Amino acid sequence: MADPTIVRAQDGSTPLLALRDVTLAFGPKVIQQKLSFDVNRGSIFAVMGGSGCGKSTVLKSMIGLLRPGEGQFLVEGEDYWADTEQRRIEIGRGRFGVLFQNSALWSALTVGENVALPMQMFTKLDDVEIRRLSLLKLALVGMEHAYDQLPAELSGGMRKRAGLARALALDPDILFFDEPSAGLDPITSSRLDDLIVNLRDGLGATVVIVSHELPSLFAIADDGVFLSATSKTSIAHGSPVFLRDYCSDPVVQDFMQRRHGNEDGSGRGQLR
Amino acid sequence: MLVVKGSWLGRLGGLPEFRSDDLGDFGGPFGFDTRDLGRWDTGLVAFLWDAIRAATRSGLKIDRSSLPDAIRKLLDLLPDEIAEPPKPKRSVFRPFYWLGGKVIDALTEVGALSDLTVQMSGGGVRAVLGRAMLRPVDLFSNTRSAGPSALTIVSVVNFLVGAILAFVGAVQLRRFAADIFVADLVGLAVVREMAAVMTGIIMAGRTGGAYASRIATMRGNEELDALAVVGIPVSDYLILPSVLALVITMPVLYLYGCLLGILGGFLVAISMLNITALGYYQQTLGAVPFDQFAFGFVKTLAFGLMIGLVSCRIGLLAGRSAADVGIAATRAVVAGIVGVIAMDAIFAVLADVVGV
Ligand SMILES: Nc1ncnc2c1ncn2[C@@H]1O[C@H](COP(=O)(O)OP(=O)(O)OP(=O)(O)O)[C@@H](O)[C@H]1O
Ligand SMILES: [Mg+2]
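^ inputs. structure came back:
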């Protein structure tokens, strides 16, 4: 959990999260194969790639929703998918905070209740404290005024932010964001960048982020992996800035430069 | 100077809350001392935020410079003042308003249903002229899931109803040595009432509920809005195939139900009573003239139309949350079942007047 002193004190030799030769498939349809990368403690890790290349799918397997066909996913060296379901839930509840691509707010609950529910279920806090903490989390994303509104009454961007507040509910130390800034205006989006960096700095969280927003990737991500839909695996590793400046792969370059089309035609669908 | 020290973990509970009166008559600039701060999480941030808002309200100057960087950055994201959400007003129960509201709702509903019927009939006419936006695929898949997929439940229910009728009849009629009239009882009851009502109830529960929840889900996903924008009328594209599917399958299922009901009665009767298979068969033929079938046939056509329209209408009215989808399905099933029984009663009275 959020604990800067302890997190910082641990030795950095085992990565916090690691994928080892992971193959992901829906039935016979392989989405990504032989995928390996490390996410280090305290980093903001970007999962990049064209639309439909499997970023959300990779995220899904990291948060325990999709069992990889092959390979291992290690959380602090512990083979996550070899654990019992009980243990996986324990890790997920205690450490993971997830923002889904379509927000996935519980539609029958108000925004405040959405944030409060995990706390009601998994902490011993009383209602007043839960209310204060959920109000704080909503205020962090600028949504405190929507406390009593239903998700259906919100705009798409507001839903995103409410989903983000819900992801923060249990002060997780690993945050997974699927396109957090899609649908946000530039100001809210850069505010969100600040929020993500501050959460990382302030709470010692590690962030895995799927995003197409190049400015925000360049601004905040300090590590990453680039997935390709054609080769169905990662084709480059490193921070977005590094990939932009030093990666020679034409697909990656097209993505980073917002160009479209390249010699072998595999650039199709690489840009939004 | 606000001194915070030790461990501040909000998730463990028991953290203090900063109230405005905690400020007392403190006047100087409001600063912080966090030198002895141990472990912390957002619980501390919530506390400091309370303190800062209280200080802002009393017009104090706030000096955040001594706060650790991480905390200051989080606090910077938070507004200095929030509007308390208004408390919901208690509403007073006023019987006349309530009753009036209900009456208006009911009348509106009648209007909306007629409107829907008209729109759908328009779609039907256009379909006949070959100009409707009705896709044969939709009609086909709706019909398949309303009809053939329901065969098992229709068979089981009608067979058992026929068997039960024969059983009850046999016990009574045997006392008067009128064994053979079990065939009349089963035949008439099944063909005139039971097969139609049972099939209607099954369809209301199975297909009506499915229509309502499907349309309600589409509404929640803004799929209906997308249809409207493209200019595809919901009545042609969604409702017409759904209702048509029911109108097509209901009478067929009814005839099939009659057969199964009579078969159930037949098996019970010849195993319990002293009658021959051939005798039972001929007695049934004599007891159930063709117009009884026609009567049941027309009834089920009407049931199908009603169930289809009502459940689509309920789906269109639903709210946008997952719970609303459940409510819509429930309401469609309840309305469908009550509707079937009520219409059956009306048909019974009409039949008496007309003399069928
Ligand atoms: N439940 C599913 N069943 C079958 N295939 C799926 C399923 N979910 C996703 N896919 C397929 O997996 C591939 C990757 O999908 P994914 O959602 O991971 O893409 P993505 O990289 O997140 O794209 P985007 O940037 O558009 O969100 C796609 O080809 C998609 O069709
Ligand atoms: Mg995705």
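The CA atoms of residues 113 and 313 of chain B lie 7 Å apart. Residues 2-76 of chain B form one domain.
thumbs up if we can close this ticket
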